[in-house]
Amino acid sequence: MSTVSRRDFLKFSMSCLAVAGVSTVLTGCNPFTGPQALSPVVFSHGVASGDASQTAVILWTRALPAVASQASVTVGWQLATDPAFTNLVRSGQVSTSADKDFTVKIDVQQLGAGKHYYYRFVAADGESRVGQTRTLPAEGLAPWKLAVFSCSNYPAGYFHVYREACKRQDLDAVVHLGDYIYEYPADGYATEYAERLGRTLAPDNATETISLTDYRKRYALYRTDPDLQELHATLPWYLVWDDHEISNDTWHSGAENHQPETEGDFFVRRAAAVQAYYEWLPIRPPMGEESIQIYRSFQCGDLASLHLLDTRLIARDQQLDYKDFVDPQSGAFATDAFRQAMGAERALLGAEQLQWLSGQLDASTAKWQLLGQQVLMAKMHLPAELLAVTDYSTLPAKLQDLTAAKQRVLLAQQQGQDPEPTDLARVSQLMPYNLDAWDGYPREREQLFATAKMLNKPLVVLAGDTHNAWHSVLSDQHGELVGVEFATASVSSPGIEKYLSIAPEQAAGLAAAFQLLIPDLQWCNVHQRGFMMLDISAAQVQCQWQFVEDVLTEDYRLGTAHQASFTG
Fold it and tell me: What is the pairing mode between strands 296-300 and 304-308?
């Protein structure tokens, strides 16, 4: 760690005074008080940038006091157009304290559009590493290249996919669709290999995250990962939460993994989770850091609008559950009651957010409308008899049987013949397999699709959450196409292959069966971890799914990539 040079001191002496989380502009500068005002700190968790617009960007670091008894610290920051910081554009001074977990966020304003910048933080006894960021172009159709991630579970495996993105020289930004952390305890979900991998939870953070201290420590652990630190320092990020930043299967007033009797008031827990999220991630909350409103839009010139949505905290009604419609005595499924519940007015985005999104779509003049959100929007409807399977060891045979029936139906239809009625009934009686996704909120999905059609704005939907990779068309209730969905595999969380105990050699067959049996599904990968790279141009949105073979070994190989395009 180098010391502050005389050149740095002279630059700082002309800088502006800032405070954590407050916007900085080119006017109203206060004189820098000198190097004695800077505190000795440890930049323990790297640097990050995010929510870059045409004229502003958030810069982030954590500045832990070198002297443990210090209640607050002061550091400097610099933004330049070159890595040597000879062309200094902006600089300032910022204080932080234990009240913010010693995190620092600077909202640097009045920057040039479409510019590449370097930034760093400076303490009394040294500097942070140098980070890179860039603002969005104000106009034009220059290509925009994004890396898209979801579901990064520290104990479940190495973050190799972050490392792979760092190797790319052509990326402009990162989009993270949620589950940046997981709330589970040390013996919880996907922790069975943690000890062998050296990725266990700290003893003082080994229980489920409930308090503000719990969530802060969990972020601190995740941010020690070198691949995550590297990707944060390399590119600006655009983030939105899913459920595990709070608790599994969160809805507006509770969560599947929250028990009020033993874990207290859900809203107290939610407030703690949101505070830690805002502290630790380089985002600009549109309604301030006291609000759970996180949805916001970014404009990349005339090329694309990126609308980041919330499908968890603000308005989501509690998820339906198939088991609630099964008679405990007879085992009969209450079909009429289920259909009535599915047809009810149930919110996922909620009226206010949906109205905001409609306004954003209407106002946007960009070529492409990207929705960055959490759960699958496409219809993932499977033959109903598959949902009755309880012994997953029988699933491969059941899928093979249904696949054969679907092939017979298709062949008969191609030949102008009537399919065998039993075959047709088996493959036509479809039900959604995941009621936590948009499939559990079909009326609101149709409202969104109707808006997109009315505005003639085809949607490019980005999704995560499932831990597997999916490419689907988006069709409304009339069978008309309204867009496409590209869904990313997880960074490290296990997917369907684990839940269904599918051996690797069976994975291709399972994927092929899904593609045949689910009408809107075009392709899927159900057994590998990975991320997506979006290459957005005036002509098309091209998605490439990149996979890694193993997240349980430090040495790994890349899996076979897959590519798809959307031309509107």
Answer: antiparallel
Cβ contact 147:533 at 8 Å: yes
Pairwise CA distance, residues 361 & 309, whole Å:
13
Tokens of 319: 């998820």
- H or E stretch including 404? helix 395-414
Give the global pTM: 0.94
Instruction: Report CA dihedral (163, 169, 170, 174) to the nearest 10 degrees.
Output: 30
- What is the C-alpha to C-alpha distance for residues 251 and 256, in angstroms, rounded to an integer? 9
CB-based contacts of 401-405 (< 8 A; 24+ apart in sequence) = 402/426, 402/427, 402/513, 402/517, 403/512, 403/513, 403/516, 403/517
Furthest-apart CA atoms within the chain: distance in Å = 87
Say if residue 506 is exposed, middle or buried (CB neighbours under 10 Å; 0-12, 13-18, 19+): middle
CA distance linking residue 250 with residue 264, whole number of Å = 15
For residues 540-563, one letter each, b for 16 or more C-beta atoms within 10 angstroms of the residue's C-beta and e for the rest, the string is ebbbbbbbbeebeeeebeebeebe
**Cα(124)–Cα(497) distance, rounded to whole angstroms?**
51
- Alpha helices of 126-259 — where are they, by DSSP H? 160-167, 194-197, 212-222, 226-234
For residue 123, what are its two tokens? 């303490």
Please choose, from the candidates 184, 235, 227, the residue with its C-alpha nearest in 3D space to the C-alpha of residue 205. Answer: 184
Cα–Cα distance for residue pair 386/330, rounded to 1 Å: 19
**Of the candidates 143, 147, 145, 158, which has an alpha carbon nearest to the alpha carbon of residue 545?**
147
Q: What separation in angstroms does the CA of 383 have from each of 275, 334, 349, 433, 526? A: 42, 17, 28, 9, 18
CA neighbor of 288 nearest in space, from 298, 297, 299, 278:
278
Residue 459 to residue 483: CA distance in whole angstroms: 4
Beta bridge partners of 470: 487, 524
The whole-angstrom separation of Cα 193 and Cα 186 is 11
Cα within 13 Å of Cα(151), Cβ side: 28
**Residue-range domains of the chain with CATH:** 1-135 (2.60.40.380), 145-378+437-568 (3.60.21.70), 381-432 (no CATH)
Beta strand 41-50 with 236-239 is parallel
The series of mean pLDDT values per 10 residues for the chain, 568 residues long, is 42 40 42 64 98 98 93 96 97 96 98 98 96 98 98 98 97 98 97 97 97 98 98 98 98 98 98 98 96 98 98 98 92 92 96 98 98 98 90 85 96 95 95 97 98 98 98 97 98 92 87 96 97 98 97 96 97
Give phi and psi for 134, each to the nearest 5. Answer: -155, 150
Cα separation, 231 vs 56, in Å, equals 20
Q: How far apart are CA 427 and CA 190, in angstroms?
A: 34
